[in-house]
């Protein structure tokens, strides 16, 4: 496990895979590839300076990037539209007119500062909306009033410093919400109250110091939660209770110094846990009881990472020592998981100290049992 990557980008294939569907990033590539090689597909690109247009029996695909001039007219059967890397502060009002069949819309790497509340009214079948790397500071209430089919909403790397629950009203089928790389310091109560089908939530690389207690009480099927790269100092004991099906939990690069003993108690399916690069010196007894080999062979199958913390390797880590030895084959970056104190073991790996500690403890216990067996009765 030593050479394996400990953290995963929120845009890696594993993270963007929607249940029963293609990866969000791969879908564009595969879509274009399939219609290119399919007998029924027909490329109608007039010149190198024009947008790429492909037609197939499933509808048209349009991809526009500089230096291509944006099309003044789009076919009504367009199902895929990508307009990326233009310096657009706002979109042409007629962009989506008469495009009721549109299913994917990619507008990343533009300069968009605002959107009209009526922007998506004409595309009720839209399933994917990618607004990565723009300059949005807010969303207009009512933007998603006709977006009941939208499954994936990506707002990563914008300039959102506040978020209002009302901005997301109307998203009845949302399965993937990416708000990473913004400037969010707080989240409103009830933000996800109506998102019962949410599977992937990415709040990484913001400035969150605390999370609302009810944050995860809405989703019923959450599988992947990204909270890495924030300023979280503690994890409340009831935060994850509503999510027994959570598979991947990312908490690296925060300021976590304390974790409640019951934090992971309800996580029956956890396959990956990343607590690296925090301020953990110790953990409460019982924290690991519901994780690892003690429950099922497939638990933590994707591994765990607790490296980059200033561990104080004393008797208070007894519980962690035993858990580490039992699950050492799933541990990332063993050589970077070291003791900061006490002085006698400073710089030694936590796993090595754990093995030594348990051997000594076993020897003492066996010696005590031998003494009891030989003592006169």
TrEMBL record:
Residues 309-363 form the LRRCT domain. The keyword Hydrolase does not apply. SUPFAM superfamilies: L domain-like. It comes from the Eukaryota. It holds the Pfam family LRR_1. Keywords: Glycoprotein, Leucine-rich repeat, Repeat, Signal. This is LOW QUALITY PROTEIN: leucine-rich alpha-2-glycoprotein. It comes from Phyllostomus discolor. The lineage of its organism: Eukaryota, Metazoa, Chordata, Craniata, Vertebrata.
């Amino acid at each position: 496990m030593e050479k394996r990557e400990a953290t995963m980008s929120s845009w890696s294939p594993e993270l963007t895979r929607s249940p029963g569907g293609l990866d969000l990033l791969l879908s564009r590539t595969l879509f274009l590839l399939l219609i290119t090689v399919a007998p029924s597909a027909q490329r109608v690109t007039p010149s190198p300076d024009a947008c790429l247009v492909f037609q197939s029996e499933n509808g048209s695909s349009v991809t526009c990037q500089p230096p291509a001039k944006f099309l003044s007219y789009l076919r009504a059967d367009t199902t895929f539209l990508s307009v990326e890397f233009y310096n657009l502060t706002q979109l042409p009002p007629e962009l989506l007119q008469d495009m009721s069949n549109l299913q994917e819309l990619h507008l990343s790497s533009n300069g968009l500062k605002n959107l009209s509340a009526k922007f998506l009214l004409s595309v009720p079948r839209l399933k994917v909306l990618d607004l990565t790397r723009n300059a949005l500071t807010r969303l207009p209430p009512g933007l998603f009033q006709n977006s009941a089919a939208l499954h994936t909403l990506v707002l990563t790397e914008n300039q959102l410093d506040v978020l209002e629950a009302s901005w997301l009203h109307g998203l009845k089928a949302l399965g993937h919400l990416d708000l990473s790389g913004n400037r969010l310091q707080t989240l409103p109560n009830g933000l996800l109250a109506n998102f019962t089908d949410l599977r992937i939530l990415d709040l990484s690389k913001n400035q969150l110091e605390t999370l609302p207690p009810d944050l995860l009480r809405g989703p019923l099927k959450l599988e992947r939660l990204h909270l890495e790269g924030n300023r979280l100092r503690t994890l409340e004991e009831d935060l994850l209770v509503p999510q027994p099906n959570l598979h991947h939990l990312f908490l690296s690069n925060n300021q976590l110094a304390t974790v409640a003993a019951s934090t992971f108690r309800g996580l029956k399916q956890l396959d990956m846990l990343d607590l690296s690069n925090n301020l953990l010196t110790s953990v409460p007894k019982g924290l690991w009881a519901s994780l690892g080999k003690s429950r099922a062979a497939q638990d933590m199958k994707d591994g765990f990472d607790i490296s980059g913390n200033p561990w104080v390797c004393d008797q208070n880590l007894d519980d962690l020592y035993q858990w580490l030895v039992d699950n050492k084959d799933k541990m990332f970056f063993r050589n970077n998981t070291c003791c900061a104190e006490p002085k006698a073991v400073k710089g030694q790996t936590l796993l090595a100290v754990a093995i030594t500690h348990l051997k000594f403890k076993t020897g003492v216990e066996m010696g005590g049992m031998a003494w009891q067996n030989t003592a006169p009765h």
